[in-house]
Specification:
Layout: H1 3-13, H2 31-40, E1 51-62, E2 68-78, E3 83-91, E4 94-102, E5 108-111, E6 116-120, E7 124-129, H3 132-149, E8 155-157, H4 161-170, H5 177-187, H6 223-229, H7 238-262, H8 264-332, H9 337-345, H10 351-368, H11 380-417, H12 434-441, H13 444-453, H14 455-488, H15 513-525, H16 532-550, H17 584-596, H18 625-650, H19 674-681, H20 697-710, H21 714-725, H22 732-746, H23 753-782, H24 796-811, H25 817-846, H26 856-879, H27 885-906, H28 908-911, H29 913-925, H30 930-933, H31 941-949, H32 953-970, H33 977-1003, H34 1015-1028
Parallel strand pairs: 5-8
Antiparallel strand pairs: 1-2, 1-7, 2-3, 3-4, 5-6, 6-7
Length: about 1050
C-alpha cells in the first residue's frame, strides 16, 4: 500500500480534519471562510481526533525479542494551530494511537547513520525509516516546526539545516500536494491580513492563531437603484437609455472643461500667495532652529546641574548612613571604664581580684571576637578600636605572666624551705602538693583566656611551672629513695643463696685434664656423642629442648605462697599523698592489684601500703627488693598521674576531655556563678584517676614533654633502686618484673604515656640485669669440672636447679604472663647447658680408645647420668611446674637409657665365663646357622657342659652378693635409688637367663644340657639380698 492510501486511511479512521480541507490538503472554500471553519467546525464523532494530518512516515522499532515492528509517526495540527506527534500502530481492527506528544516534549533530534533517526520524547526512541527521502522529510518537518513554534529549540545532533532546506526546495517529487503547501507555508514569511478583512473572533482556549492569506473584496453596486434614477425599466428600449447616458456624459465633460478654464486666474493668485507663505515659513523655521539650538545647550547645562545635585544628595545620605553605622559599630566595641581598670590594676593575689579579672577578660573576649559583615571590619576606625582593645589584653597578659612566674617561684621556695616536709631517718613518706594545687587552680580560667590570646606566654608559663615544681619533686623523690634504700630495704645473706649456680672458684670437683679438654670442645662445637647409648640420649634431649622452646609462652606456673608478715600503714596528714582507703575507686584498684599479683612473695614478705612510716624499722620488717620497687611505684606513679592531670586541667591542654576532667566548659565565656565555682573546684576529685588515651598525637607528645621535664630525675632514682636490689641477688630481677607487670597493664591505653615510658625503661633494665645473670649462671655450669675417673655423685648444679626453680616460682603468679615467658626462657637455657655438660663427659669417654665396655671410667659415666637424671627427674616432677614437663620427660628418657646400659655392664662379672661363652655363641650366629655352632671346638657340646658346671646356683648367689656391695658403693647418696637399680639388675639377669636357655635349645638341641640353676632360684637370690640389706 502506497503512502497516499495509508494517509487516506489514517485521516478516515483517526482524524476528522479541519472544516473543508479534504484529504489531499486542497481547500474548497475561500480563505476567510476556511479560517472561520478552523475555529467553528466540530465533529460529532467522539473516537476521532479533531486534527488535520500534515505528515505521516512509517518507521521501524526494535521489540524486546530482537525483532522489528512497524509504526507510523503522524504530525497533525489542531484547531488552535498546535502541532502534535502521534505514534500509530496497526492491528487487525485498523489503526490506533499508542502514544502522543507535543512539540515541547522534544528534547533531542539526532540524524543517525544511514536511515536511522534518534528522538528523545522524555524517552529516547531510535527509528528506522524506509529510505533517506522519508528520513529527510521527517527531520525537515520536525526541525522547521520546532524552530517556528518553540521558544527554546531541542538539542540538534548531526543535523545540517541548510542542506535539508535546499533539498526540500529543489527536490519535492516525493512530497504530496498537502505536504508541498505545508512546506511552502513554513518557508514563506507570514503577511498580515488586509484591513478590509473582517476580524475573526478568537476562541478563548486558543493560545496562538495563524492568519491564512485572503483576497480583498470588490465594492458592491446596487443596479436597481441606478436604473430608477434614469426612470428606466427593463421593458423599454435599451438604445434610448444608451443615448441618454451619452448625453449626460458629454454634458459632464463640458462642465469639467469650463471649470478648468475659469479657475486658472484664481489658481495663479493662490500660487503667489503660496510662495509668499513659503518664504515666511522659511524665516520662521530659521528662528525655530536658532531657538532650538539655544534650548538644547541650556538643557544640557540644566541636566548636568540636576545630575550634580542628585549626586550631592546621594553622597549626603550615604555619609549620614555611614556615620550612623560607624557609631553603631563603635558602640558595640565599647568597653566600660571599670573593666579597663580591672585589667590594669586589679590585684591577682586575692580571690575577689581574680574573679574581677576573669569577668573583665570574658567581657573583653566578647567585644573583640565580634564579627562584622562586608568591609566594616576593614574600616580604619574599627581597626583602631580593636587595636586599642587588644592592647588592653596584651598588657593584662604580661601582668598575668609576671605574677604567675613570681607565684610559682614563691611556692616552690616555700616548699623547699619547709623542714617539716623532709624525710627523716626511719620515715618513708612522699608528700603531696594539694595546697599549691588549690591556690593555682584559681587561675585556671585566666590561663584558658591566655591560651586563646597569647600562646607564647601560655607556653612560657607551662615551662616556668615545670621548672619550679620540678625542683620540689626532685628533692622529695631523692630523699624518699634514699630513705627506702638505707632504712627500708632488706638485704639477703650469702648463706641463703643456695639457688644460685656457683662457679669453680668456690667448689672444685676432681677432674682430669683430658676430661676438661673434651668438655670444652664439646660445649663449643656442639657435636653429638658417638656411642649408641649417648647418641640416642643426646638426640632425644635436643628434640625436647626445641619442642619446649616453642611452647614457653603458653605455660602457667602455680601461684606464689602467701605472706607471713604485714607492714604498717602511715596515716595521711594534710599534705601527704596517700589514697583514701574509704574511696570505692581506690579500694577497687588495690583489690585488683592484689588479685593480679597473686598475694605476696616468699621469705616472709608482707603486703605493702601506698606509703609507710616507721621511726625504727627492724630487719624483719624491712622490704625485699621487689617489694621495695612496688612500694616506690605505688608512691611515685600516682603523683605522676595527678601532676599530669593537674597540668592538663590547669593549662587547658585538652579541652575535649569531658569524662575525667573538670566539669567546666572553658571553650566559651561563662558567667562566674557560685554553682560554676563549685563544679570547677570538684575537678580535684578526679585528678588521681587514670584518664583514657588522647587521639591527638601532637598533644600527647606535648603533655609527655611537660611531665618528663618535671620528673626527669625519677628514672635514675628508680634505676638506683633496681641496682641496689639486685646487688646481692640477681634473682630479685624476676621478682621486680612480676611486681612491675601489673603496673604496666594498669597504664595501658591511658593518656599517661610518660608513665608507660618509665615502666618500659624499668622493664628493659631488669631484662638486661636478668640476661647478664643467666649468662653468668650458664658460664658457672659450663666451667664446672667433672672427671670420669672418680664417681662424683649428684653434681652441684643438678642439686641447685630445683632450688632455682623454687626461687623463680616464688616470684610468679598465674597472671604474670610476660614474666613467665622470661623465666621459661631461662629454664630452657640453663637445662640445655646442664645437658650439654653431661653429654660432654659421655663423649669424652666414648672417644677414648683405651676405655673398654667394662672400664671404670665408662661405668662412672653411666653412674653419673643415672644419679643426676634420677635426681633431676624426681625433684622437678614433684614441683609440678608445667613449663618443665618436657624436660622432666627428657630426663626420664636419659635415665632409662643409662640405667639399662649400666645393668648390662655390671652383670658381666657375676656371670663370668658363662657370659663370655654365650656372647661368643651369639657372635657365631651372626655368620652361621645354629646347627653349625656345635662344629666349633670352643663352642661344642663338651665346652657347653663344662662351662655350665662351673656356675651352679651357689656360685651365682656368691657373685650376686659381691655385685650388691658394688652397686651399693656406686649409689650411696640418692635415697631409694639403690633398690631401683637392684630391680633393674634383676630384670636384666632374668632376660639374660631366658636368652641363654633359648641359645641352648636352638644350638644344642641334643645335648640335653641346662643351666645349673632355675629362674625361680635366681629371683629368690635377688629377693634374699634385697631383704637382707
Amino acid at each position: 500500500m502506497d503512502a497516499k492510501a495509508v494517509k487516506r486511511q489514517l485521516s478516515t479512521q483517526l482524524f476528522v480534519g479541519l472544516g473543508g480541507i479534504d484529504g489531499n490538503g486542497a481547500s474548497k472554500e475561500p480563505p476567510v471562510i476556511q479560517l472561520r471553519s478552523l475555529r467553528d467546525n466540530h465533529d460529532s464523532s467522539s473516537d476521532k481526533y479533531n486534527e488535520q494530518l500534515i505528515l505521516n512516515s512509517r518507521v521501524w522499532e526494535e521489540n524486546k525479542k530482537g525483532g522489528r515492528k512497524a509504526r507510523w509517526i503522524c504530525i497533525t495540527v489542531k484547531k488552535n494551530m498546535k502541532y502534535r506527534i502521534h505514534k500509530v500502530k496497526q492491528s487487525k481492527s485498523g489503526y490506533s494511537i499508542s502514544k502522543s506528544w507535543g512539540l515541547d516534549d522534544i528534547k533531542l533530534i539526532e540524524d543517525a547513520e544511514d536511515v536511522h533517526v534518534t528522538v528523545n520524547l522524555g524517552k529516547t526512541y531510535r527509528w528506522s525509516l524506509d529510505d533517506k527521502q522519508a528520513k529527510s522529510e521527517l527531520l525537515y518537518t520536525l526541525m522547521k516546526l520546532c524552530r517556528r513554534y518553540l521558544k527554546r529549540l531541542p538539542k540538534l545532533v548531526n543535523i545540517n539545516e541548510d542542506a535539508l532546506q535546499t533539498q526540500m526546495k529543489l527536490d519535492m517529487t516525493f512530497m504530496s500536494d498537502a505536504d508541498k503547501a505545508f512546506s511552502t507555508n513554513l518557508t514563506a514569511p507570514v503577511k498580515p491580513l488586509d484591513s478590509t478583512v473582517p476580524e475573526v473572533e478568537e476562541d478563548s482556549s486558543d493560545e496562538e492563531v495563524v492568519l491564512l492569506p485572503v483576497v480583498p473584496e470588490a465594492p458592491q453596486v446596487d443596479l436597481d437603484e441606478v436604473l430608477n434614477d434614469f426612470n428606466w425599466q427593463a421593458s423599454r428600449d435599451a438604445a434610448a437609455l444608451e443615448a441618454r447616458l451619452l448625453e449626460e456624459l458629454q454634458a459632464l465633460e463640458v462642465a469639467n472643461v469650463h471649470a478648468i478654464i475659469s479657475s486658472e486666474e484664481h489658481a495663479n493668485n493662490v500660487v503667489g500667495q503660496l510662495d509668499k507663505a513659503l518664504s515666511q515659513l522659511g524665516e520662521i523655521e530659521e528662528w525655530i532652529s536658532h531657538y532650538t539650538r539655544m534650548l538644547d545647550a541650556m538643557g544640557q547645562d540644566v541636566h548636568q546641574i540636576e545630575i550634580s545635585h542628585k549626586g550631592m544628595q546621594i553622597t549626603s545620605e550615604n555619609q549620614k548612613l555611614l556615620l550612623k553605622e560607624v557609631e553603631t559599630v563603635l558602640a558595640s566595641l565599647y568597653l566600660p571604664g571599670y573593666i579597663i581598670e580591672a585589667l590594669r590594676n586589679e590585684p591577682l593575689n586575692e580571690d575577689e581580684g581574680i574573679q574581677q579579672c576573669e569577668e573583665a577578660t570574658e567581657r573583653l573576649m566578647e567585644v573583640v571576637s565580634k564579627k562584622f559583615s562586608g568591609d566594616v571590619g576593614n574600616m580604619q576606625a574599627v581597626k583602631e578600636r580593636l587595636a586599642l582593645l587588644n592592647g588592653y589584653g596584651v598588657q593584662f597578659a604580661a601582668r598575668l605572666q609576671k605574677h604567675l612566674n613570681a607565684y610559682f617561684q614563691t611556692q616552690a621556695d616555700s616548699y623547699m624551705s619547709d623542714k617539716t616536709r623532709t624525710s627523716r631517718r626511719g620515715s618513708l613518706k612522699l608528700y603531696g602538693h594539694e595546697s599549691i594545687e588549690e591556690k593555682l587552680y584559681r587561675f585556671r580560667r585566666l590561663l584558658t583566656w591566655l591560651k586563646d590570646v597569647d600562646t607564647r606566654k601560655h607556653y612560657d608559663l607551662q615551662m616556668s611551672y615545670v621548672h619550679e615544681m620540678g625542683r620540689v619533686y626532685a628533692r622529695d623523690i631523692h630523699e624518699f629513695i634514699e630513705q627506702l634504700k638505707l632504712h627500708h630495704m632488706r638485704r639477703i645473706e650469702e648463706s641463703m643463696l643456695d639457688y644460685v649456680f656457683i662457679g669453680p672458684t668456690s667448689v672444685t670437683i676432681s677432674v682430669s685434664s683430658a676430661a676438661t679438654t673434651a668438655l670444652k670442645s664439646t660445649v663449643s662445637a656442639g657435636t653429638a656423642m658417638t656411642s649408641a647409648v649417648t647418641s640416642a640420649a643426646g638426640s632425644a634431649l635436643k628434640s625436647a629442648i626445641r619442642g619446649s622452646n616453642a611452647n614457653l609462652g603458653h605455660l602457667h606456673p602455680p601461684e606464689r605462697a602467701g605472706n607471713k608478715r604485714s607492714k604498717l600503714r602511715s596515716t595521711k596528714d594534710t599534705d601527704s599523698f596517700v589514697e583514701d582507703d574509704t574511696s570505692d575507686d581506690a579500694a577497687s584498684i588495690k583489690s585488683s592489684r592484689s588479685h593480679r599479683r597473686g598475694g605476696s612473695g616468699s621469705h616472709g614478705r608482707g603486703p605493702t601500703g601506698v606509703s609507710m612510716q616507721s621511726l625504727d624499722v627492724g630487719i624483719d620488717e624491712r622490704m625485699w627488693p621487689d617489694e621495695a620497687l612496688e612500694e616506690t611505684l605505688q608512691s611515685l606513679l600516682p603523683i605522676l598521674v595527678r601532676e599530669q592531670n593537674f597540668i592538663t586541667d590547669l593549662f587547658s591542654l585538652h579541652r575535649s576531655h569531658k569524662v575525667q576532667s573538670s566539669t567546666m566548659d572553658l571553650t566559651s565565656p561563662t558567667l562566674d556563678t557560685p554553682t560554676s565555682r563549685e563544679k570547677e573546684n570538684d575537678g580535684h576529685d578526679d585528678l588521681d584517676r587514670r584518664r583514657p588515651a588522647i587521639k591527638d598525637l601532637k598533644l600527647t607528645k606535648r603533655i609527655q614533654e611537660l611531665v618528663q621535664g618535671m620528673f626527669e630525675g625519677v628514672r635514675e632514682e628508680i634505676l638506683d633502686v633496681l641496682d641496689a636490689g639486685v646487688k646481692a641477688d640477681y634473682t630479685f630481677a624476676i621478682g621486680m618484673m612480676a611486681r612491675l607487670e601489673p603496673f604496666t597493664q594498669d597504664y595501658q591505653d591511658t593518656s599517661h604515656t610518660y608513665v608507660l615510658l618509665l615502666l618500659e625503661e624499668i622493664q628493659k633494665r631488669l631484662q638486661e640485669l636478668w640476661d647478664k645473670f643467666i649468662e653468668d649462671q650458664m658460664a658457672n655450669i659450663d666451667s664446672t669440672k667433672v672427671t670420669s675417673k672418680k664417681r662424683s655423685g649428684i653434681l652441684l648444679f643438678v642439686r641447685t636447679f630445683p632450688k632455682f626453680v623454687d626461687r623463680m616460682e616464688s616470684f610468679l603468679g598465674q597472671n604474670y604472663s610476660r614474666t613467665r615467658k622470661v623465666v621459661n626462657e631461662a629454664y630452657a637455657k640453663i637445662i640445655k647447658t646442664i645437658m650439654v655438660t653431661l653429654d660432654a663427659m659421655a663423649q669424652q669417654v666414648a672417644n677414648d680408645p683405651k676405655a673398654g665396655a667394662d672400664d671404670k671410667e665408662h661405668l662412672n659415666i653411666h653412674i653419673l647420668h643415672v644419679e643426676n637424671m634420677h635426681h633431676f627427674y624426681s625433684e622437678l616432677r614433684a614441683r609440678k611446674v608445667s613449663a618443665l614437663d618436657t624436660y622432666v620427660k627428657q630426663a626420664k628418657g636419659m635415665y632409662d637409657i643409662h640405667l639399662d646400659t649400666y645393668c648390662k655392664v655390671v652383670i658381666r662379672k657375676p656371670l663370668g665365663k658363662l657370659w663370655d661363652f654365650f656372647d661368643g655363641v651369639e657372635s657365631l650366629l651372626k655368620t652361621n646357622t645354629p646347627e653349625e655352632v656345635n662344629y666349633h671346638v670352643q663352642y661344642n657340646r663338651s665346652a657347653l657342659k663344662e662351662v655350665l658346671k662351673k656356675y651352679p646356683g651357689k656360685e651365682i648367689k656368691k657373685g650376686l652378693e659381691s655385685l650388691y656391695k658394688r652397686v651399693e658403693k656406686h649409689y650411696p647418696d640418692e635415697d631409694g635409688l639403690l633398690q631401683v637399680i637392684w630391680r633393674g639388675i634383676q630384670e636384666e639377669f632374668a632376660k639374660t637367663y631366658k636368652r641363654y636357655e633359648e641359645l641352648i635349645g636352638s644350638c644344642y638341641p641334643e645335648a640335653n644340657a641346662r643351666l645349673e640353676f632355675t629362674l625361680q632360684e635366681l629371683l629368690g637370690y635377688f629377693s634374699e639380698l634385697a631383704r637382707a640389706h
